[in-house]
Design a protein that fits this description.
This protein is mostly helical. It has 2 domains: about 60 residues, no CATH class; about 80 residues. It has 4 helices and 3 strands. A hairpin with a 5-residue loop joins strand 1 and strand 2. It is flat, with a radius of gyration of 20 Å.
């Protein structure tokens, strides 16, 4: 059986459900959109078991009151080497909260690595290259803009 990456809403995440983990097909759709949360996150409901879940289920954003963008900006600052105490002061979040986000992110990354290495036969070298690519993706556009600006004698 070929393994594929799926999204929340493609299957029921409730282990007690008869349709747990079954990928929806065009013929059988047991997951339906079920409104949105106060923060605008899509909510789903399984017709088989009646359980509801949100689009952030299974992600580092699940159950968080802080917007996704704010969490990502905070984690990006840590990835750039900014001290947690400095980030906490600037972003106005408790250090314990930021450390919890960091732990959850590390656990999530470890799970992704495990799947990529075992199920998709990605090697450690390929995975390191992938993470390097992901890490540098945001800075490449900035560098290209600076080079383009320098060629035209413009200060960025």
């Amino acid at each position: 059986m070929e393994k594929v990456f799926v999204q929340v809403g493609d299957f029921c995440p409730n282990e007690a459900c008869a349709d747990y983990g079954k990928l929806q097909t065009s013929h059988q759709r047991n997951i339906q959109k079920f409104g949105k949360t106060r923060n605008g996150v899509q909510r789903y409901r399984c017709k088989t078991c009646g359980k509801t879940f949100t689009a952030t289920y299974g992600t580092i954003f699940y159950g968080k009151r802080t917007p996704e963008k704010e969490i990502l900006e905070t984690l990006a600052l840590l990835a750039e080497g900014v001290r947690i105490s400095s980030v906490a002061r600037v972003k106005r979040h408790k250090e314990d909260t930021i450390l919890q986000w960091l732990r959850e992110t590390a656990d999530h990354a470890a799970q992704i690595e495990e799947v990529l290495m075992s199920d998709f036969k990605v090697t450690r070298g390929q995975l390191d290259a992938l993470w390097s690519y992901v890490r540098n993706k945001g800075s490449k556009k900035t560098i290209q803009k600076r080079i383009r600006a320098a060629n035209f004698g413009v200060q960025p």
